[in-house]
Amino acid sequence: MEVHYELPLGGAHLAYRAAEAGHDVVLCDPSFDISEESMERLESAGVELVTDDTAGVEHGEIQILFTPFGHTVKIARELLDDVREGAVLCTTCTCPPIALYHGLEGELRTKREDVGVSSFHPAGIPGAETQDLILVADARSEESGIELASEEQVERCVNLAEDMGYDVYVLDPELISSIGDMSVVLTVRIVQAICNYFSVARICGAPIEMIEEQVEEVLSTMAYLVGRYGLDAFDRMDGKLLLRSLRNMALTEDVERVVDFFERCYVDLLSGDRESMRELSSMMVPPDKLVDRVREIVGEAPVQYARRRFFEERRWGS
Amino acid sequence: MEVHYELPLGGAHLAYRAAEAGHDVVLCDPSFDISEESMERLESAGVELVTDDTAGVEHGEIQILFTPFGHTVKIARELLDDVREGAVLCTTCTCPPIALYHGLEGELRTKREDVGVSSFHPAGIPGAETQDLILVADARSEESGIELASEEQVERCVNLAEDMGYDVYVLDPELISSIGDMSVVLTVRIVQAICNYFSVARICGAPIEMIEEQVEEVLSTMAYLVGRYGLDAFDRMDGKLLLRSLRNMALTEDVERVVDFFERCYVDLLSGDRESMRELSSMMVPPDKLVDRVREIVGEAPVQYARRRFFEERRWGS
């Protein structure tokens, strides 16, 4: 992958591109760990460089947070009082917009109802050759019914990105990370695994509804296992057991190759045994079904609480 | 895969093997759609053949339900009054044991507390050459705290399977399906995708906790999408968007191959566009976290209700 080195990557690149597109840009960085030359190029494009975050948050109608991992929520909370009236705060690859929303929820629902939350996610490193799109979080999270921003605030982000020459996708606030973050590598492989399983199961004559249910249950089970045990779940799994079950499904050449590949490359990684397998607790109930049913009988509040606590406790910090 | 054709596969094979091992076996089948020769071989091994299910359920200390898809719960409920005192009902590949438990829960917690539920899952077709193990569901589902059977009932199933020459694994009742059913093909591929992502993310310097969280979130997101939209989720996804994001992660040769493979074989399958992507609602909160938090504030009852309703509504029937 080639990279244009004439400018620093990341936030500085976005600032440069926005200024080149005629926008009035303030770039805040407490340290400015970039070359003299880069700073000159930024300033000649019209970017104002400041080391004081407050100067930035008082200025921007759109505030793009190219903040370090695990610090976004804390930084935004400290600066929120000074944020310009009606501004929209946009997370990038270091924090999902819904996590920032929940982190600031108390203030956003009371004294700062004017402020919106969205994303300006570059789905890559701004300035890298192949980075050519921006993911903007939609105004509303359909599942939770939460309004993170106004339609106008989202439109504002879309317009800025388009002015900067980007192709823009507006996505559900909770879909941004799986599509835009590094973990898209996993998303894509899971999509492939599901498409492939679907064709295998169809060959075996399974009805579509059954396949859908199986896919959902396997995904929920795996999400549960990783949630409970972290990656240690895989040290507890017994690769030989999986292989023996898998072999019995080798009804097509395609699956025979899956068996062969698993046996050669993965069986030994799953170093658990009969005992460690027995100790794995599990749950096959999927998240959407849990939420729907809990809502049905005790209402929205416990679901919102569960969501909020989840986002507070994650790596995005609080 | 070669198969021993001298006996019918499936339930009849299990009956034959149990009888050969010296157990007293009744094989119930309302139709007996098998050859004269097979019936003779079963009878000469000591299997009693009956067409009346009631005769079977009155007899067995272990009752293995090789029942058709979608009918297990209904059949078991109709016969439950006649089930032998202290028997354990075992599902196979057509129903997860926890689904049968929830389907009979009212009776099992009142007038039939003596009856247990487990599994005798062959993880393949009994009688097929490579089929050499039995998965027995553990007495207790750790996550839900539900006791499906007594320790003695589980031990009874383990002993029978061992008598029959099988290798036995005892697993959490909710793990049986992902390991034993046809969907193990998907389980294995997801395990591979996660192991692979882990090494990619480590090369990029991501801390382990962050990788674990990302994995869990992607799995939850995908479980949610498949739960909400079924396999139609993939028709709504825009393969070109995924590809463009993925390309920006091609920092190793390994990922370059993932990009290449996805581009050649899968991009066109994901035929959605900007609009259909925008309409996908999503949720990244994982099932275990939802359950933990809901329990924390409104107690166990709504969680149990949600679980029960989920199992009632699935393909296993009610």
TrEMBL record, chains A, B:
Pfam families: HMD, HMD_N. SUPFAM superfamilies: 6-phosphogluconate dehydrogenase C-terminal domain-like, NAD(P)-binding Rossmann-fold domains. It comes from the Archaea. InterPro entries: 6-PGluconate_DH-like_C_sf, HMD_C, HMD_C_sf, HMD_N, HMDII/III, METHMP_Hmd, NAD(P)-bd_dom_sf. Residues 174-256 form the H2-forming N5,N10-methylenetetrahydromethanopterin dehydrogenase C-terminal domain. Keywords: Oxidoreductase. One of its GO terms (molecular function) is oxidoreductase activity. Residues 43-142 form the 5,10-methenyltetrahydromethanopterin hydrogenase N-terminal domain. NCBIfam families: hmd_rel, PRK12557.1. Belongs to the HMD family. This is H(2)-dependent methylenetetrahydromethanopterin dehydrogenase-related protein. It comes from Methanopyrus kandleri.
